[in-house]
Amino acid sequence: MKIYCVAGALAAAIFFPGGALPAEEQFNLEPASLTQLEKAVRSRGDPARGREIFLDTSDAQCANCHRLQGVGGHAGPALDSILGELDIRQLAEALVAPSRKITEGYDTYTIATTDGKILSGLKLKDSDKEVLLRDGLGKDTVIQKKQIARIEKSPVSLMPARLVSRLSRKDLVDLISFLKNPAAQLKLKGRLSRAWITGPFSRSVSRTEPFEKNPDPAKLAVSSSGKLLQWKLINARADGLIQLAGPAAVKKSSAYILALMQSDRDREAVLWLDHSSALRLLVNSETVYSSRDPAANSRLSIRLRKGWNTILSRVSNPTGNSTLGLRYEPARGLRLTADRQE
Ligand code: HEC
Predict the structure, then answer these.
(1) Which ligand 1 atom is nearest residue 136's CA?
(2) What is the arithmetic mean of pLDDT over 243-260?
(3) How far is the CA of 76 from the centre of ligand 1 (A)?
(4) How crowded is residue 128: how many other Cβ atoms within 10 Å of its Cβ?
(5) Which superfamily does 194-337 belong to?
C-alpha cells in the first residue's frame, strides 16, 4: 500500500505531471472575473464541447470521480441533483476552490496508523471494528480500528483544487455551460458502463462460435476448438468506453462483449456504436452489424423483443487495446445492462 500525505498532495503528485497554464490565462474568483465568466457561459458556452471535457480522463478528470446520468466514477458525489442547486458563480467556486465548501458527507479524513502509515480519503464506513476509506482514485482500503493511532477530519477536499488551472478559459466556459445544461447531460444517459467479456478467439470477427446461438454469462463459453472459457465482468472507463483487457483480450485476437437489453415491448431501438477496430454485433443471436473499420458514433437501428435481449459484440483486438462504446437512445421502457438484477 502506498503512503499518502494529504489528499491535495496526493492528487497533485498523481494528476499533474505537466505544468499549469500561465497565471494571466487562469481564471480567479474576483468579482470582475466571475461576472465575465457568467457572461461568457451565457453567450458563448458550448455544452457539447463541455461534455467532452467532463469525460476527459487526463485533464479535467471530472468523470473519474463524479457520476452524471449514471456515467462516471465513485470517488465524489453524483452530480445530478447538486448541479441544479448551484448557479454559475457557485459552480466556479466549487471548481476553483473545492475546499471552501465541502459537500455534506464528503469530508476527507486523514488516518495515521500505529505502524506509521498515513492514509486519506472519504470515510465510507465507520463501524466498531473498522473504517473504510476511499481515496481520490476510487480505491477502497479497510483499516482495523485497533490499528488507528489518530484520525482527523481534513479541511482539504478530496477534489483537487488545481484541476481547473489545467483548463483554458474556453474549456472552463464550455465545461460550466455543460454543467448548467440538463439537455446536454442527458446525452450521457444510456451508455453501457459494465459488460461481460470472454476470449481470446481468432482475430477475424467474421468467424462464428457455437455459443453465439445462446450467449449466457452464467454458462461457460465453449469455443469451436473445444476450449472452455468463462465470462468476466468488465467496467467501462470513465469516458464510457470499454477497453478490452485481461486474459480474454490478448493482442492479435478478438473477444466477445455481452450485454443485456430489456424492453417493455416488441419495438425498434437505436444503438450508437464506437469501435476502434473491426466489430460484428449480434442482437438475439442474429448478426445485425459488421464493420472492418473503426467507427465513431455509428447509428444502428435494432429490433427488440419484449423482455430480455442479448447484445453480443465480437471485437477484434489487433494491438491489445481496442475499445468498444455502446449507448442506446434513451426511451421509456428500455434498459442496457450487464446484469438482470441491476
Ligand atoms: C479526485 C476526485 C475528483 C475529481 C477529479 C473531481 N472531483 Fe468534484 N468533488 C470530489 C469530491 C470528493 C467532492 C465532495 C467534497 C467537496 O465538496 O469538495 C466534490 C465536489 C464537487 C462539486 C460539489 C460542490 C458543492 O458545493 O456541493 C462539484 C460541482 C464538483 N465536484 C464538480 C467537479 C467537476 C466539474 C470536476 C472536473 C473539473 C470535478 N469535480 C473533479 C471529487 C472530485
Answers:
(1) 1
(2) 94
(3) 6
(4) 5
(5) Galactose-binding domain-like (2.60.120.260)
